[in-house]
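**User:**
If convenient, please work through this fold.
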Amino acid sequence: MSYRKVNYEDVEQVSDAKHFLSEPLGCRQVGVTFSRCPPGWNSEPHDHVDDEHEEVYVLVSGAAEVQIDQESVPVEEGDAVWIAPEATRQIRNGEEESAFVLISAPEFDSSGSSGDAWDITGVNG
């Protein structure tokens, strides 16, 4: 099959906000998480130094802020934020619900060597 489809509501929720979609979708090189953030919710601060994963946070509804290192980055519906592996990041939700799609992937190998398969364990936080 050349595609797979899953609805985040059909995937078991992890913590109080996240649904890891990579495994149900059968992803091999990208992590995908849907995060419906309740009012006042904050993710755990974390980085991806050890696994060298860059991330993109796409806000699909609501408004929130993403703390990246020492900078507070306000995000509105439709905004996408790229975050380097070494940066500490944390979602900080405001007084209303927001929803993010979080995408992570290992560093791109431009040499053409495929290496080992990437172990997808979900996005922290």
In short: Helices lie at 22-25. The first strand starts at residue 18 and ends at 20. The beta strands are 18-20, 31-37, 53-61, 63-68, 71-76, 80-83, 89-93, 98-106.
